[in-house]
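[Automated response] Your request has been received and processed.

Submitted sequence:
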Amino acid sequence: MRLSDYLNTLSWSQTDLAKEAGISVSTVRRAMKEQRISRPNARAICDALTRGLKRPIAPSDVNELHITDLNRPSRKKPEGQPV
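Generated structure:
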């Protein structure tokens, strides 16, 4: 299901979901636009949906959740490069 379908089922707005999940409305908007969000934010969304629907919702159950990988390599400058 899409995130919008879950919100419709619960009669929640994006603001309602943000409050229930403890995240910003802009994060919910990014998720709704299928933009990348962090794994903790995706988990918070699913936890809020789980509480609202009273059944487990995993990130893989929400079609439009695109989770960013936070284990990216650092962008340190190579040694010998001026700062």
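Summary generated for your ticket: The mean pLDDT is 89. The radius of gyration is 16 Å.
If you did not submit this request, please reply to this message.
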